[in-house]
Amino acid sequence: MTSLLLEQYLEPQIVPLEIIEGEYYLNDFSAFKSIVLAGNKYVFFEGTLNAADDVVSGSWYKMAASTETINLDDNNVIYVEDNTTPPPPPPNPHDPPNDPNETELGSDKLKGWIKYNSIGLSSSAISTTDTKVGLMNASRAKLYSGQKLIFAKPDLSHAIILTKAGDSTTSDTQINVSSFTPDVTYPAGSILAIAQYDLTNVITGGGSGTPGGSDTQVQFNDSGAFNGTDLLKVTGANELTIGGTNSNILFNSGADLVLGADTAGGTSSTIQYLDSGNTNRVMLGAYATNIVVLSNRAANGEVQIRANTSTAGGAGELTIATFKDTSVDFLNAAELRGTNIGNIFDLEAYLTAVDFTMASNGSYAGFTGRNGGSSEVSVSSLSQFATFQVPAGYQATHVQVNGQSSSSTFDVYACNVTTLTATALTSSPSVNTNQALSSAQSGVAGNYLSIKYTPGATRRAIYGAKITLQRA
Predict the structure, then answer these.
(1) For a Cys staple, 42 with which of 3, 60, 270, 359, CB 3.0–4.6 Å?
(2) Is pTM, for the whole model, over 0.85?
(3) Confidence class of residue 43 from pLDDT cuts 50, 70 and 90?
(4) What architecture (CATH level 2) is domain 107-202?
């Protein structure tokens, strides 16, 4: 207690005595109760009590901080809710005069200022002429050449203005500035911040800095600086030009090139080329409604479809089809395949009863008694024949002859237009049986199949035949 009293007595000799005056409504006033205001404790000094209104008018003085611990009953403490900032203490004549370069801020304000305005904290002390400020961490903001910056000691004293030299990004840990010579040493942890008044000078029109390249060139980020390229130019109000020699446009996986993206169903959007007459000509168009056209609008323009052999590049390229104004020319070696080409239905081909008109005896010809729905001969020992050419790109693997009686038989032979030879491919299977050939027959120029039908009795009609194919 003695120590506390001594401290309270000597405190006004060091700093001015802080006294608050006012009126407080207290329904249980006691001169021994202290007041807690803004975290500081005040004890009653003098005043009067209006018992009728329970109002105390008086003075309280602030207790200085002490190393002594005195426990007070909560009943002897009055907590006052007051959000107003207390008036500053009167000047102490013993204090040195204020340094005009010093700025004192409360810790909360200092933290707030750093949080919302600083670019970073310096990583090392600066005491001599320098052209840079190293940062402890990456810059918190992108900075532009010529931008004004504030540099101050950690307590925000000795603030000076620096000028940014060149642009920098948020990944930079060194901020280049115009040469400056400090009057004092700026220790590590000094604050580098933006000068808010200068932002309108460096951020205008959605960008900043000096454009790079030549007029009309599109700007791009070149290692943190503006640059231009002749690969991409704005050459007209509605025109974007891709220049350079052998320039490429690269699309990553999943990317799309969309024509007429703003109009559902297609529009008049096209891809064009410059023809020999130096005129743009349409080569691919997307037209309404849902029509896509591959074309060549040059005079006598041709459209070619090309594909490669097993050799990659131009050496292996073949023109499969050439479309002209009145014709379509196909590569001689090209094979037309599909689910319905001529009498080919997917992997099957058919012969009708009328195809079996040739008989094994010249005196007896095949005839029909059912309006073309069947064919027959009048002699049981005779046979009827039909032929079939396997299409190029296919192989015949099975033959099935359909007829009136399963007691009838058939045979298949491999023939060629240059010889009398006919090689048997079956061993007289029954009619209405799908018979595998002893060897698959490929579509080769000059080769064909001969199908022989043997009724075995009169009035046994044949209805037709099915040839099963596979793609070679």
Answers:
(1) 60
(2) no
(3) confident
(4) Beta Barrel (2.40)
